[in-house]
Amino acid sequence: MKLPQSEEQVIQILWDKKRAFMKDIIEAYPDPKPASTTIATLLKRMQDKGVVNHKKYGNVREYYPVLKKEEYFSNQMTGMIKNFFNDSVGQFASFFTSEQNLTDEQLDELKRIVEEQINARKK
To answer: Cys-Cys crosslink for 52: which of 28, 46, 99, 120, Cβ 3.0 to 4.6 Å?
Structure first.
């Protein structure tokens, strides 16, 4: 599931805060702040999608993410690799490492991570 950018902003805030009231969500936005009705609409849409939920305290709702950040990111990366790199992780890695002007240290870190994954699978 790909969220629109407006909903991604809300879920990012909720991932950072874990739980938040609408006023907390609005305060987390840079100026100019969105209207509370805008945020309420986004939260309602996101609830309908099963991305967020809330706990009610009288007339006030405390929102929290249902969708896990890691799950969303993994799905987005998988979709990007499929759509832009012909479902080839190798093409993605080649593009990423050549286009990002990575330092030797960053490349060494990527190499270490890949080697750790290979070794873990051999056990």
So the answer is: 46
Non-local (6+) Cβ contacts of 75 within 8 A are 1
3-state secondary structure of 52: strand
Task: Give CATH for domain 5-65.
Answer: 1.10.10.10
CA distance 119 to 59: 54
Contact indicator for 62, 47 with CB cutoff of 8 Å = no
Q: Please report, as a single letter, which amino acid is at residue 51.
A: V
- The structure's pTM equals 0.78
Domain boundaries, the chain: 5-65, 88-123
**Is 64:54 a contact under the CB 8 Å cutoff?**
yes
Distance in angstroms (rounded) separating the CA atoms of residues 63 and 65: 7
Contacts of 30 (CB under 8 A, 6+ apart): none
pLDDT of 40 strictly over 90: yes
